[in-house]
Design goal:
The chain is mainly alpha-helical. It has a single domain (3-178), classed as dinb family like domain (Four Helix Bundle (Hemerythrin (Met), subunit A)). Helices cover 59% and strands 3% of the residues. The chain contains 5 helices and 2 strands; from the N terminus they run H-H-H-H-E-E-H. It has helices at 3-24, 44-68, 81-91, 110-129, 152-178; strands at residues 139-141, 149-151. It has a two-stranded antiparallel ribbon. Strand 1 and strand 2 form a beta hairpin. The longest helix is centred in the C-terminal third of the chain and has 27 residues, at 152-178. It is elongated, with a radius of gyration of 16 Å.
Amino acid sequence: MNAEDFLDKQKSLFASHVDACKRAVSAFADEQFAIAPEPGVWSVGQVFEHLNLSIEPYIAGMGAAAARAPKDGGAEPRKSFLGRFIYGALSEKRAVPVPGGFRPNGLGSRKDYERYLENAERFLTLFDDAKGKDLNGATFQNPILPLFKMNLTDGFSIMTAHGAYHQQQIEERAAKVKG
């Protein structure tokens, strides 16, 4: 798969996750975003807060990497070792420990949802910004482990898998809250 096809596929997947989340909460009243469907489980608003906390450093790092990336030389997009590890953990759709900086610290609200929609739009523009660029050669610091670098292929793959994982959570939790 070439870089342009990879970007088109990942962008389509990411956009479909965002659309599914919109549908899941389309009839939500403001207070429903803060309702935990069961004790010890994040509310839908808290899931959106977590998505914001996790995607914002990726947007910053990937945006800078895309801006300075060399021109695409035709190499097939490939994940780094760290990228494969993180992507694999997310793709298995199993719960993984959430680092402290990515944990929600409020009850969750409509504002978290609206902020996520803004962040999702910003992230979607990165797919276009990266077209014609070397996705493997453009690197940025891992937001959790800053000593390690990841490439744009990693970032797009990880955030799309992360979106899929939390889309499922949002749909399930929204259905429980709606009753």
